[in-house]
Amino acid sequence: MKPIEVKNLQKTYGDLKAVDGISFVVNEGEVFGLLGPNGAGKTTTIEILEGLRERDGGEVKVLGCDPWKDGYSLHKKIGVIPQEFTFFEKTSPREAIVYYADLFNIKVDPDQILRDVLLEDSAKTLFDNLSGGQKQKTGLALSLVNSPDMLFLDEPTTGLDPNARRAIWEVIRSLKAKGKTIILTTHYLDEAEQLSDRVAIMNHGHIVAMGTTDEIISQHGSGERLEINGEEKLAEYIKANTELQVNYDTAKCVISIPLNKKIDALAALAAAEQSGLDWGEIQTRRDSLDDVFINLVSGEVDEQGEIVSEDAESQLSRKRRR
Prior knowledge:
Among the domains are: 4-77 and 149-219, P-loop containing nucleotide triphosphate hydrolases (Rossmann fold, 3-Layer(aba) Sandwich); 224-285, Alpha-Beta Plaits (2-Layer Sandwich), CATH 3.30.70.100. It is elongated, with a radius of gyration of 24 Å. A hairpin with a 2-residue loop joins strand 8 (198-203) and strand 9. It contains 12 helices and 15 strands. Helix 5 packs parallel to helix 6. The relative contact order is 0.15. The longest helix is centred in the middle third of the chain and has 16 residues, at 162-177. By secondary structure, it is an alpha/beta fold.
């Protein structure tokens, strides 16, 4: 039995099919990343898995439980950190852990949990005086109070600075090393690449790609290519004097040539040299997860590697419908 088994999951809101027949499994001890633009169906899917929202169709098993029917039993086995985690402002992380332990009616070592999430130095700091990263670590600490078999981390680093994000990454890696199964939703593609064993990319309620990042790039990317900084005249010269496919990005002034064979790069560079025209930097590259994501979904990626929707109006519309 897999920790998560989803078959033909469906959820609709009026005429909107938020989740439209998706199927996937999550393996024990892996970090499974769920990606997609706003309105793709990620949050709805996660809330169904957590037992917070009833599905309209399909089969779902989480740790052997039906999340909606067996929610009470399931919630004793999982830990959850929601988007934009917050807590009582005048409570310290250590006090929060003790409070949660009382709710679960269990005994814990608060100091060990604080060490696990790298928060021992702020154990007695009031929540409203913590940094953004420390607040997220507090959320992680509380998700561990019941010694869960599985963690649901819904955009755990959104809005954090780079140092705070990487500190959260280290905590997630340490939890994985201890055998925890982790479901991660994120708007940061670099985060998904760094942390996930496998990812699923959602769009308009469907899973459009799933596998390791290397598998997804291999299946949906455009392969290796040579890129040359130069003007369009150079691109035209290379195209006219070789049998290569030559593409030109006017905005970036970059010539892109797919490399079916390594020797194609030599032919392109020889033609560039023979042209007598100026050309600049050269590099070979493969598509990144960013490139593949843009090709697969209607969203885009900003300069920080964060997934954004098509435009502000579309994003607002999707949020309202969801």
